[in-house]
């Protein structure tokens, strides 16, 4: 299995090289790692402070890592933070994050790369977010007696760790000094395979979204767009989501306003979408305060506003669950509103729980969505009750970052 693991990484790099001339993200993945060790060496050359290394796969994991990083820095101000990403989606969006002293792409996992990276960064502690398990990095850190932690981790019975043929992958988990998991199911699964240095600390994204809500940025232009109307915020939408949403949006009997923040912003796609919308729509970049109140649909054609946009909604739709994967449902939930999303949410514990408590709603068709939205639109009491449920759900699950950092301070320093 170790050889298969190595071959799979080599194949992945070969595939990236093959498609990089035609794919922006593949090109970023490849180009971002050119001369990566020279970049790391130059950046770290004059450092004499202890280093805490945080690693994230992409932007979603960064949102989980951020409250832990920031609290860690508050408690250990003598430490510097080295943040790494595997994916271009995370690195390119957060490469200027001010809370880290250095931000790099993680070199692809191999014995040579791991030893070289650790030698250059010299971390005193390493923290991996959610699903990140890289054999050679973990092995190298362990051999050098550098404490290793995983947080916001979540495990499912179908994962390779719990299969009869998963011994090699189970060995990854033994390298961790402690694993902070999101739920009791993950705890029991790990204990069933002899991994006992584990505890439930929850999902640190709850801390992050609660912080976002508390420090939301006012957007006066959006407030003028909304006026006194009820509004649905559509976050991180894909074309598959819009196919379901458009019949609702074009329904003239429901006088909602809509804010759409697509997952990917391409001028041609926004133009095509506007042509399908039967109501007056405008791009944010072209809107002005004098007449924005006359429009029914506001399309966000920039990155970074979504988390604050949710404050202007009475309902939210979160994209991705008709395709590759559901995006962040906690952001709208923390602002207190019914949250709608597609049918592919089984790998997202927060969506499962939000449905269970009555704050989230999975819909599989335009008809189902329209029926639910009509209920919330016409029944103010019901809408407010659901909104309170969503808000309470988030607040009841905050505090994971504090418990994680408190453990680190007790056991590592």
Write structural notes for this entry.
α3 packs parallel to α6, α4 packs across α10 and α12 crosses α17. The model has no long low-confidence stretch (mean pLDDT 95). The chain is globular. 46% of the residues lie in helices and 16% in strands. The strands form two sheets. The chain has a seven-stranded parallel beta sheet with strand order 3-2-1-4-5-6-7, sandwiched between helices. A seven-stranded parallel beta sheet has the order 10-11-9-8-12-13-14, with helices on both faces. β4, α7 and β5 form a beta-alpha-beta unit. It is built from 19 helices and 14 strands. The protein has two domains: 202 residues, 3-Layer(aba) Sandwich (Rossmann fold); 173 residues, Rossmann fold (3-Layer(aba) Sandwich). With 413 residues, it is of the alpha/beta class.
List keywords for this structure.
alpha/beta; Rossmann fold; 413 residues; 19 helices; 2 domains; 7-stranded parallel β-sheet; globular
In short:
The protein is α/β, with parallel strands linked by helices. The protein is built from 19 helices and 14 strands.
Q: What would the principal axes of the Cα set say about the shape?
A: globular
CATH top-level class of the largest domain: Alpha Beta
CATH architecture of the largest domain: 3-Layer(aba) Sandwich
- Which parts are unreliable, with pLDDT below 50 for 5 consecutive residues or more? none
Largest β-sheet summary: 7 strands, parallel
Number of helices: 19
Structural class: alpha/beta
Cα end-to-end separation = 36 Å
CATH superfamily grouping of the largest domain: 3-Deoxy-D-manno-octulosonic-acid transferase, N-terminal domain
Classify the fold: give the CATH topology of the largest domain.
Rossmann fold
Q: How is the largest sheet built, in terms of strand order?
A: 3-2-1-4-5-6-7
Work out the helicity level: 40-55%
> Would you report the number of β strands?
14
Strand content: 15-25%
